[in-house]
Amino acid sequence: MTNKVIIRSAETRDIAAVLPLMHKLAEFEGYRHQFKVTASSLRTIIEQNNDTGIVVADSADAIVGYLAYYYLPFTYDLSPWLVIKELFVCANARNRGVGQALFAQARHLCASKGGHKIKWEVLTQNHNAQRFYQRCGAQLEDEWRIMSLRVPPA
């Protein structure tokens, strides 16, 4: 891998490279058996180019990372928040500034919409990711717990 990495919006030509990275993340985070993202669904997200998006880290020879995000259009302060759904960097591209560049792009995307906050979830046992985000200026929020509810199909 070369050292030059370009951070840019994903294009349809990137689907074949991004989908396997999503599979790797799903495997690592333990939801591979529930993973339903397809090339077609990625194409829709990329082509819609609205409040959901994917950014890639493009080296000269490969896509080495991606950021999947969406916006909460407004919150209690009437300001949009950017929510990071996934941030993944290939093992061979880690510790080379790729994750920091993707995270910096998340900051830029948030600010460009008039937002002032980025939110995301990180696995409790993923201490490497927690340290990475803290180096980027993030703080763990001890006062909140994530809750969820599975809703059966109607």
What topology emerges from the helices and strands here?
Layout: E1 5-9, H1 15-29, H2 39-48, E2 52-59, E3 63-72, E4 81-89, H3 98-112, E5 117-120, H4 127-135
Parallel strand pairs: 4-5
Antiparallel strand pairs: 1-2, 2-3, 3-4
Question: What are the key terms here?
Answer:
single chain; 154 residues; alpha+beta; Aminopeptidase; 5 strands; 32% helix; globular; transferase; Acyl_CoA_acyltransferase; N-acetyltransferase domain-containing protein; N-acetyltransferase activity; acyltransferase
Account of the protein in words:
- This protein is of the alpha+beta class and 154 residues long.
- It has one domain (5-135): Aminopeptidase (3-Layer(aba) Sandwich).
- It has four helices and five strands; from the N terminus they run βααβββαβα.
- Strand 2 (52-59) and strand 3 (63-72) form a beta hairpin.
- InterPro entries: Acyl_CoA_acyltransferase, Diverse_Substrate_AcTransf, GNAT_dom.
- GO terms for molecular function: N-acetyltransferase activity.
- It holds the Pfam family Acetyltransf_1.
Span between termini: 47 Å
Quote the CATH topology.
Aminopeptidase
List the secondary-structure elements in sequence, H or E: EHHEEEHEH
What structural class do helix, strand and pairing data support?
alpha+beta
Q: What is the H level of CATH, i.e. the homologous superfamily?
A: Gcn5-related N-acetyltransferase (GNAT)
What is the number of E strands? 5
**Average predicted confidence as pLDDT:** 94
CATH class: Alpha Beta
The domain count comes to 1
- The rounded Rg comes to 16 Å
**How large a portion of the residues is in β-strands, by DSSP E?**
15-25%
- Could you give the order of strands across the largest sheet? 1-2-3-4-5
Q: Level of helix content?
A: 25-40%
